[in-house]
Design brief:
transmembrane helix, 15 strands, alpha/beta, five-stranded mixed β-sheet, fructokinase activity, EC 2.7.1.-, 17 helices, ATP-binding, globular, 48% helix
Length: 508
């Protein structure tokens, strides 16, 4: 009995010890889990805080937008007063009349882009007939042409045009009939007439040194002449001016054009007497189209964040194109990426994705737009894009919602700032309703104003377009805004340019 009792006591002590040990282990495990949950909450809280701070930094209150409107109008005046007087270049195009629908005949246009050359043929039927037919062909630009010689590039352009003319005209083609041609050349040039301009520098990956300082229209005409093409460059334009021409062809109330795509720019019709830096300038219409180059606009009123500053610091054109870097498709996706990278560094909601998110331009704007547009309950498109493009696996739903929020903040800011820029143009030409006679009122009635809108960001990105349109109404007020029409147009750089060739040739 003594031995059995001792054994029982020993077993009891062992059991008690085991129980105590288990309790200790359980408490330790519980403490670890509680600690992890607490850290997870803190990390999640930090992710939310990063987004909140970013949203505050991107604020586009109506008061701030009106400050941007005023700054845009002031810079426009400064750019018209003197060369170098403003961040806005306010370049003369020497175009003093726009297509009105009465043009007749067959015209060609060339559109030299970053990766391709487009050739177009447009047949016009005069009043009410409008555009009877248009044909287009595209050829890729091989890398060696982008870094070779001017002769090689312009011979390629002339050869492509020659092949196209022979294909579409066939037996009708005759070298005795001179054709009018518009050349859309969206690179920095110093325009010296409506049909000529000196190349200042290349962009978009081109680096043809011996072309700089040359008249690009003359280079093209020499290449065409060598190939027996009886054609004359009637208009040397950029894509924004082409958009205005197309807009005015369809609606005579079109007075400005804005392109918001990979890049961004705007142009408008200005009174000749307001172009102070070119005193003595005479035009038949009393006005001239001004190429603003508004991507370079800057104002202290623009809501700039640390992410915008780092993007600019790492860009090849630092301290330049500030407005473009906040509103155009080239940069919006990368701003989102920078915010997500910060979140990944300060929280664990994206797992170990910080490495992929550190790569510049890893997230392109079309992917950002697709995530922003995801209307599925579980945001499955967001999950797919993050998984396939940024290697972010198994991201929880609440983290996906964070991503969509960042996309929305970036898009909303960009659209509202672009709207302020548009209203700035309206203010400059007296169509914003801000003061008496210059509001464009005639006999007590507000004048209708049309802005031609082009570019993938505006045309194809529904939420961007919605935010922009809403902001225009918000800034102007409903009474004035009902007389302002933002009209989408397509292919100003092609069809619009050909229409300019028709308009200019008929006026000569």
């Amino acid at each position: 009995m003594g031995i059995d009792e001792g054994g029982r006591r020993l077993m009891g002590r062992v059991g008690f010890g085991v129980a105590v040990g288990c309790a200790v282990v359980s408490c330790a495990i519980a403490a670890i889990l509680v600690g992890r949950r607490a850290r997870s909450r803190r990390r999640w809280g930090r992710a939310v805080e990063v987004v909140r701070e970013f949203e505050e930094g991107c604020s586009t209150s109506i008061g701030r937008l009106r400050q941007v409107v005023d700054a845009m109008a002031v810079e426009m005046n400064a750019g018209l007063a003197s060369e170098g007087g403003s961040k806005l270049k306010m370049l003369l195009t020497f175009i003093d009349s726009l297509p009105d629908g009465k043009e007749m005949g067959t015209y060609y246009s060339l559109d030299l882009g970053a990766t391709s050359l487009r050739v177009l043929r447009v047949e016009l039927g005069g009043t009410r007939s409008m555009i009877l037919r248009h044909q287009v062909e595209s050829q890729p630009i091989l890398p060696y042409l982008m870094t070779g010689t001017a002769e090689e590039l312009f011979d390629f352009i002339a050869m492509t045009l020659q092949n196209f003319v022979e294909k579409v005209e066939g037996l009708e083609h005759t070298s005795d009939l001179r054709r009018e041609l518009a050349f859309t050349f969206s690179f920095p040039v110093r325009q010296i007439s409506v049909s000529s301009g000196i190349l200042i520098r290349w962009t978009k990956g081109f680096a043809i040194e011996d072309a700089i300082g040359k008249d690009v229209a003359r280079c093209l005409e020499e290449a065409m002449s060598k190939r027996g093409l009886n054609m004359r460059v009637t208009a040397l334009v950029n894509d924004t001016v082409g958009s205005l021409a197309l807009g005015h062809y369809h609606d005579e109330d079109a007075v400005a054009a804005v392109v918001i795509g990979t890049g961004t720019n705007a142009c408008y019709v200005e009174r000749t007497e307001a172009i102070i830096k070119s005193q003595g300038l005479l035009t038949n219409s009393g006005g001239m189209v001004i190429n603003m180059e508004w991507g370079s606009f800057w104002s202290s009123h623009l809501p700039r964040t640390s992410y915008d500053i780092s993007l600019d610091d790492e860009s090849p054109n630092q301290n330049d194109q500030g407005f473009e870097k906040m509103i155009s498709g080239m940069y919006l996706g990368d701003i989102v990426r920078r915010v997500l990278h910060r979140i990944a560094q300060e929280s664990d909601i994206f797992g170990d994705a910080a490495r992929c998110l550190a790569v510049p331009f890893m997230l392109r704007t079309p992917l950002m737009a697709a995530m922003h547009d995801d209307a599925s309950p579980d945001l499955r498109e967001v999950a797919r894009i993050l998984r396939e493009n940024l290697e972010i696996q198994d991201i929880p739903l609440r983290a996906r919602r964070i991503v969509v929020s960042v996309c929305d903040i970036v898009t909303r800011r960009a659209a509202r700032l672009a709207a302020a820029g548009i209203v700035g143009i309206l203010k400059k030409i007296g169509r914003d309703g801000s003061d008496g006679v210059s509001t464009g009122r005639t006999e007590g009635k507000s004048r209708r104003t049309v802005i031609a809108m082009e570019g993938g960001l505006y045309v194809s990105y529904g939420l961007f377009r919605e935010y922009l349109n809403e902001a225009v109404v918000e800034i102007l007020g409903e009474e004035i805004a009902q007389n302002v029409v933002l009209r989408t147009c397509e292919d100003g750089s092609g069809i619009g340019a050909a229409l300019l060739a028709a308009s200019l040739s008929s006026n000569q």
